[in-house]
Specification:
There is one protein chain. By secondary structure, the chain is mainly alpha-helical. It has a single domain, classed as Proton glutamate symport protein (Orthogonal Bundle), CATH 1.10.3860. 80% of the residues lie in helices and 0% in strands. It is built from 15 helices and no strands.
């Protein structure tokens, strides 16, 4: 809630400056916006390298079939959710917010006083490939020293996000809204914000309904009983905005859903890092909305959007540890694959963080479905082994 309130304050402050402040004040804000944007760009490959390497290196060993099937179910759920979100968003958003697709700039916004380029140490794809090379190598060779290095590197980046970048986001977003207020496009954008957020939350609930109804019927369990068991995890995630921080409650909720202890103890911590269907629904829907809000841009076809969705399921590994981690780790894909500029990136951050708690709640509640399926396949074997 603090993050959301600060974002709203940043939007309001940016609009007031854009409407009423002298041009020099707006340019100062835009200069700060430019500097923060460069810091974010510099950090993106480091997020990918340290988060994904650490996530792969820390995957549990000695449970090959269970691990493989859990990862497969999680990735499949994430990708299917993303594809369905795009299909719904591409039809619903132009109907629900038709003015957004025709939004135009009425004037020119002031420019920053100067631009300081801070080039990243390496590109997004290079970071992703390096993360898999090191992650798999560390796991295979049991290189505990390197595992510690990348784990501590992830802690450093997480501290940078929590202590520097996330607190600066309201200022970063204020610059975007000041520019939109100056060029006359701010009210069209705000009008569409509420529609997009409502659509995202409804899609979360529909997706969870599909998961639990199908899982309950196919496993001869009551979908309502399964959902009731997972409600504590859902509401806890609304408050924590972190899948990792919700693990204790998720674990107890999964056990209350009559999943055996060995399976629950294995699946829940793993899925907290790799099962991100709620975040994917949000990112796909919000990216479609931002493209509609951008003059001259339009929605791509499913074939063009599918590679982005497939990469999302990979690049967000281990990102849910901190609030906003999923959107921060996806920024590299938004810029490299969808061609987002700084203004579009700032709108994505604002939209995502405004509903981050609902996306996280969908992620952890969906983990219960994965646990039920893994218990069906491996429950007896795990119980015998324990």
């Amino acid at each position: 809630m603090k993050i959301i309130l600060r974002l709203i304050a940043g939007m309001m402050a940016g609009m007031l400056l854009g409407f009423y402040a002298p041009e020099w004040a707006v340019r100062v804000l835009l200069t700060l916006h430019e500097l923060i944007g460069q810091l974010i760009k510099f950090t993106i490959p480091l997020i990918i390298l340290f988060y994904i390497t650490s996530g792969i290196a820390c995957l549990p060993k000695g449970s090959g079939k269970l691990l493989g099937r859990t990862v497969g179910f999680s990735y499949g759920s994430t990708i299917i959710a993303g594809v369905l979100a795009f299909l719904v968003a591409s039809v619903a958003l132009p109907l629900l917010a038709p003015a957004a697709a025709e939004a135009g700039h009425e004037g020119l916004a002031p420019a920053a006083f100067f631009k300081l380029e801070i080039p990243p140490l390496f590109g997004v794809i290079s970071a992703l490939v390096a993360a898999f090379v090191f992650g798999i190598g560390i796991s295979a060779l049991r290189a505990d020293a390197l595992r510690t290095v990348f784990g501590e590197g992830r802690d450093i980046i997480e501290r940078l996000l929590a202590k520097v970048i996330i607190p600066l986001l309201p200022l970063y977003i204020a610059g975007v809204f000041a520019a939109m207020a100056a060029d006359g496009s701010v009210f069209t954008t705000l009008k569409s914000f509420g529609t997009v957020l409502l659509l995202v939350v409804v899609m979360h609930w529909v997706w969870l309904g599909i998961l639990y109804v199908a899982t309950g019927l196919l496993n001869q369990r009551s979908p309502l009983e399964l959902i009731r068991a997972m409600l504590p995890a859902y509401f806890t995630a609304l408050g924590t905005m972190s899948s990792a921080a919700t693990i204790p409650v998720t674990l107890q909720s999964v056990k209350n859903a009559k999943v055996s202890d060995p399976i629950a103890n294995f699946v829940v911590p793993l899925c907290a890092n790799i099962h991100l269907s709620g975040s994917t629904i949000t990112l796909v829907t919000c990216s479609c909305a931002v493209m509609l809000l951008t003059p001259g841009a339009g929605l791509p076809a499913l074939g063009a959007m599918l590679p982005f969705i497939l990469m999302l399921g990979v690049i967000m590994i281990a990102a849910p540890g901190a609030p906003g981690g999923a959107v921060m780790s996806s920024l590299g894909l938004l810029t490299s694959m969808l061609g987002f500029n700084e203004a579009q990136v700032a709108l994505m951050i604002a939209l995502y963080l405004a509903q981050d708690s609902f996306g996280t709640a969908t992620n952890v509640t969906g983990d219960g479905v994965i646990a039920v399926w893994m218990d069906r396949f491996f429950g007896k074997e795990a119980a015998a082994g324990s």
